[in-house]
Design a protein that fits this description.
mainly alpha; 2 domains; flat; disordered N terminus; Wax synthase domain-containing protein
């Protein structure tokens, strides 16, 4: 059974529907690119300076260096996934005059697992899946 989220509009999308003019799209996406490049560079530099020191798969809260390593790796993965989608989103928004919807909407602010998967993670797949699979069925 599919969750009831597919029948509703994502409440977090209203923030991005106002970004429609070409100048605002380019400005908004360039800010996102700069932020993610900085995040990628910082995470990559940390991981190169301090190579993996994990002693086990369990993250111990008292082991700060292991927690920092996991946090840097998570930031690296997030920015690596986000960076290729920004130019694509900008091209689609400019070419088809559609709202500029990012792939991820601040997933680190999720308060529950449902909010994370339903509203904040991989919005491109979610919207296309809704249009092609959920609504026709």
């Amino acid at each position: 059974m599919l969750p009831s989220v597919f029948g509703k509009k994502n409440p977090l999308m209203h923030r991005y529907e106002h970004v429609k003019s070409a100048v605002s799209i380019i400005w908004y996406q360039s800010k996102r690119i700069i932020a993610h490049v900085i995040l990628y560079i910082l995470a990559r530099a940390y991981l190169e300076k301090y190579p993996q020191m994990a002693s086990s798969w369990i993250i111990a809260p008292w082991n700060l260096s292991e927690m920092m390593h996991q946090l840097a790796f998570g930031c690296l993965v997030y920015s690596t996934l986000q960076l290729p989608s920004i130019p694509y989103t900008m091209f689609v928004a400019l070419a088809f005059k559609t709202p500029c919807i990012p792939m991820f909407i601040r997933p680190y602010f999720s308060t529950s697992l449902r909010e994370f998967w339903s509203y904040r993670w991989n919005n491109h797949f979610q919207s296309s899946f809704k249009k092609t699979v959920f609504l026709p069925v």
